[in-house]
Amino acid sequence: MAEKSPASDVEAGLLAHLNSAGEVPDSRSFASSLGVSHLELESVIKSLSAFRIVDRTDVIKETWVLTDEAKGYAAKGSPEAQLVAAIPPEGASKDALKAKLGDAFDVGMKAAARNKWIGFEKGNKDLVLRKVENVNDELQDQLKRLANGEVVPDKVIDDLKRRKLITKEKSIWYSLKKGPEFVVKRKILATDVTTEHLRSGDWKYLEFKDYNYGAQGRPIAKGYVHPLMEVREAIENIFTMMGFAEMPTNYYVESSFWNFDALFQPQQHPARDSHDTFFLKAPAATKLLPEDYLEKVKQIHQSGGYGSKGYGYDWKRDEAEKNLLRTHTTAVSARMLYKLAQEKPFAPKRYYSIDRVFRNEAVDRTHLAEFHQIEGLICDYGLTLGMSKLRFKPAYNPYTEPSMEIFSYHDGLKKWVEVGNSGMFRPEMLLPMGLPEGVNVIAWGLSLERPTMILYGIDNIRDLFGPKVDFNLIKNSPICRLGL
Known about the structure:
Keywords: Aminoacyl-tRNA synthetase, ATP-binding, Cytoplasm, Ligase, Magnesium, Metal-binding, Nucleotide-binding, Protein biosynthesis. Its cofactor is Mg(2+). GO terms for molecular function: ATP binding; metal ion binding; phenylalanine-tRNA ligase activity. By secondary structure, the protein is an alpha+beta fold. It is about 35% helix and about 25% strand. The strands form 4 sheets. A 7-stranded mixed beta sheet has the order 7-10-11-15-14-13-12, with helices on both faces. Strands 1-6-2 form a 3-stranded antiparallel beta sheet. Strands 3-5-4 form a 3-stranded antiparallel beta sheet. Helix 5 crosses helix 7 (about 105-115).
């Protein structure tokens, strides 16, 4: 191929040819005549076409082309023909033929045996013998014909496709004619006034390209709010308007005492196993626990109290002191209720929190090892569970009784979906804290990810949160509104 020509030379050659001949039937052939690649000519054609200097007609054709493996067979012969040619009159061992043919050996053996071109010595299956003097290498002939652009039968195409020797390739080229704004030499219009133009004074004689006032400006570089944050803010606003105060959730690392024991969850509960919880190696434990309250929690676990029989086991302080990554924000609720119990006189409260929790779970399309939990609670005298327009399913939590899973009907999905868990905190949890008799706590929790996935139509949690998030999702997501 000739040395690459500047685009201006390619353009000059094309316009001169159109001026004299009036058309270019095949841009591929014309690119060859100029000694340039079709890609170089194509960029010039598109530029001239945009200014209506040339009219182009796109020609699209799908053709079968040889794979690299097939090109080798077209040059050297099919594997079966190569195999037969490599066998001397006295025969050859399989190892010798494999060393000579390489990857073509196995394919060649099968095809040659199927064509009955080879056989084996009786009693010695390792010695390969020729059964024919000459072979008609149809495969090589078919590949050469296809490479030369000749038409081959559909049956041959199907066979070559099956052997993965050909692949379909789309070719695009152009036929060209003079356009309504045709000129032999295009005038280059200036787009900016430069310092050199001002110094030389030639700005007086320049022709400038017209401004396109309808063109879009450059996108402004700005930040975008993540869908999770959109939904989080909307939920926070709902809680705030209803008079809820936010609980501090700055403890990602929590003790087993607040995460489990204070919630009346026995120390042998499966959730406290390392298969479900991330325990810390350093610092592995804490001593910073309220001693009086800890002793009451110990007694309620071991022997009961406040109308409860307890669990009847030997409660161990070492287990309660273990540090972990909190598995739920209910640990924060326990801390806040204990703090509230120390304030006299008692005052009703409404609390909420939204923050991360961590669980040792297998990651899949609906589960992550870390996610966000929404939690709310109301603490007051004489509370009941009077609610409507939702469905509840009985459930079990060590720290609530009754316990219920919450389901809501989603109009978009046309089905009932689980949105969270709920219940009333047990006396075994509340009374050791020091809360007055007759004070009830209604609590509920749900993930932030689940409603966000529903509202944004996302079916894989890894597309919403974590290292696989596509930033275009964040950039292009509409502003979300709850209550859809």
